[in-house]
């Protein structure tokens, strides 16, 4: 079995979105005695000419996958992941990222498990999506998934440690954590995904995008619309190319080495889309737009983001405004990670406690007694809370000073009392 360092070197050399392919036979085996069963015996495997762009689809080739040191046996459904174990697993993933620089391949792993979703199929798990099916040999053999066995080997010790976490959740947790730890946005993730239990429940091959289609824009729409994603989400998700690099011996794309990749980290070599290819930022869009550095990679499906009018409006915005990119990417990534998933509980599990709740500001009446200016919405909320505290229930913002209102009410009541008394 390959050492963890060797596995990590391979992992760090991969983009989360890059097509990973070879023109000839590819061996990913770390054990010369291992071989997969004949294709005729694999119920979930079908032929497909597609090669992934956004999900690192491989060109068609004969691929051997070694599962040495990694378990792909069927496991019973886990109805829900344990929240405490999910939190602990996230901390272990953070430590893994610090030492192995495997951010790109972990992002790719989550994307590939979710990216088989077909919105036109209602049944689970036939509809595909984030269900942990990628752990089975039959799906690992799909051309799109060549090399992802390295990501599985990196995560398997964490899965062994936390048996109360499903594979489906672990893949998405690793993907989201990798984005965040690389400097990306905080993702609004939820967990509780159920795992498929048998290789027969894997999706057929051919649901992931092509790296070099004749019409890049049309192809991207065909694939991502099938998943229920929009033009904005296509462009935002493409921005994850800010991570990783391409190796020509694996994908047929890119240079063997550039000034940005010759020293690693991980195994040196390949061609990246950005200078800092382990940092999540909006330089993917900036560099594609400018194209000033021949050492940075631009694929046809990257270039089309600034050529297609419907894509260009978002690509231009993201090149100028990283905050907008982060906001839209976070929403798109979270949506992708939920595609096809079956949650238990149905609403999912949150492992983010959110910002600490501070004690409400004490209401000091004297500070708000002036009637010379319009009250702010926040002040109206405070006053409304004071009303409710003494049994009142105002149903609209106050239009004038609280204490002036009280004086008017008292005066009116006094007048009415005097009038009816007489």
TrEMBL record:
Species whose genome carries this gene: Nyssa sinensis
Record field: transmembrane: 402-421
A Pfam family assignment: peroxidase
Gene Ontology MF annotations: heme binding; L-ascorbate peroxidase activity; lactoperoxidase activity; metal ion binding
Residue ranges annotated for the Plant heme peroxidase family profile domain, each copy included: 165-357
Stored SUPFAM superfamilies: Heme-dependent peroxidases
Localization: Plastid, Chloroplast
Protein name: Plant heme peroxidase family profile domain-containing protein
Gene3D superfamilies, sorted: 1.10.520.10, Peroxidase, domain 2
Key words of the record: Calcium, Chloroplast, Heme, Hydrogen peroxide, Iron, Membrane, Metal-binding, Oxidoreductase, Peroxidase, Plastid, Potassium, Transit peptide, Transmembrane, Transmembrane helix
Similarity annotation: Belongs to the peroxidase family. Ascorbate peroxidase subfamily.
Catalytic activity as recorded in UniProt: L-ascorbate + H2O2 = L-dehydroascorbate + 2 H2O; 2 a phenolic donor + H2O2 = 2 a phenolic radical donor + 2 H2O
One cellular-component annotation, GO: chloroplast
Keyword Repressor: no
Cofactor or coenzyme needed: heme b
Compositional bias ranges of the Basic and acidic residues kind: 246-262
Entry function: Plays a key role in hydrogen peroxide removal.
PROSITE patterns, per the entry: PEROXIDASE_1, PEROXIDASE_4
Superkingdom to which the source organism belongs: Eukaryota
Region (Disordered): 240-268
Keyword Transmembrane helix: yes
One example of a Gene Ontology biological process annotation: cellular response to oxidative stress
